[in-house]
Amino acid sequence: MPDGPAPLPGGVGVSRLRVYDTVAPDGLVGGTPHVHLCCTEGYVVTDGEGVVQTLTTTGFRETPLRPGTVVWFEPGTVHRLVNGGGLSIVVLMQNSGLPEAGDAVLTFPPDVLADPAAYAAAAALPDGGAPGSDVRAAYRRRDLAVTGFQALRSGGPAALAAFHAAAVALRQPLLARWRQRWEAGAGRAAAGTGSQLDALERGDPRHLGEAGVYALDEPVERGRLGMCGLLDTYPAAV
Questions:
Q1: Measured between alpha carbons, how far is 37 from 159 in angstroms, rounded to an integer?
Q2: CA 206 – CA 195 distance, rounded (Å)
Q3: What is the rounded CA–CA span in Å between residue 77 and residue 42?
Q4: Residue 169, helix vs strand vs coil
Q5: Contacts of 152 (CB under 8 A, 6+ apart)
Q6: How close are the terminal C-alpha atoms of the chain, in Å?
Q7: Dihedral over alpha carbons 109, 110, 112, 116 (to 10 degrees)
Q8: What pLDDT score does 217 carry?
Q9: What is the pLDDT of residues 67-99, one digit of tens each?
Q10: Regions of the chain short of the pLDDT cut 70
């Protein structure tokens, strides 16, 4: 087996998620509503049941989740996992773990979103959410985001448009670093496929002789505090 893992197919990131099982201010059990600005997210449900609540310009929707369900949604979709009991998911994220590098904006109230320092304080977790850190901080930020999410749902398209604009403004300083990550990950993977197609058209099979097989026996972390629950994480190779 070659040394060092190659990136996962297409430069995706993968983690296992056990959705939070405590009650939010609206009486529902589950995770933190948020949005991604340039990453599509997918779920493969492995255990339990629940729903994913989504909010887009076409309105609010609840998609049932049960073992075997596969759901995915594009950037701009505000989403929140609701745990109906034992909900566990394999999460697939576009762009080599870019959401962990900042491509996630929580649905805090507008006054918090408009102040980068206030947003950072409200979103912060002890030790960055490392395994074993105080989960109550994750619940506090979840509860604040649920409050904002309720206002988004009742505010209609204008409220969602304002939230999208605030999210873009908040993350503008990070875009250069995001581009670098994309170029090294998903962009490089796509370019590599193009090079392989060029080689095949020339009748050149050399890349087939360079194939590797890779495996990870277990996550590198178990129980990291995520937005929606406890994460078992794998390295996002780029």
A1: 17
A2: 12
A3: 12
A4: helix
A5: 55, 78, 107, 159, 160, 163
A6: 18
A7: 140
A8: 87
A9: 999 999 999 999 999 999 999 999 999 998 888
A10: 1-4, 236-238
The pLDDT, as a whole number, for residue 2 is 43
Which has the closest alpha carbon to 178: 11, 41, 38, 76?
A: 38
Interatomic CA distance for residues 141 and 93, integer angstroms: 22
Cα distance between residue 152 and residue 59, in whole Å: 11
Q: In this structure, are residues 131 and 231 in contact, taking their beta carbons and an 8 Å threshold?
A: no
Q: How far apart are CA 44 and CA 16, in angstroms?
A: 10
Bridge partners for 93 per DSSP: 13, 41
For the whole model, what pTM was predicted?
0.93
For residue 197, give the H/E element and its range: helix 186-201
Cβ proximity of 43 and 65 under 8 Å: yes
Angle (CA) 227 145 123, round 5°? 60
Please name the amino acid found at residue 174.
L
**Token pair of 93, please?**
């994220």
Alpha-carbon distances, residue 182 vs 68, 99, 106 (angstroms)? 30, 12, 22
Amino acid at 130: A
Count, in order, helices (H) and strands (E) of the chain. Answer: 5, 9
CA distance 16 to 21: 16
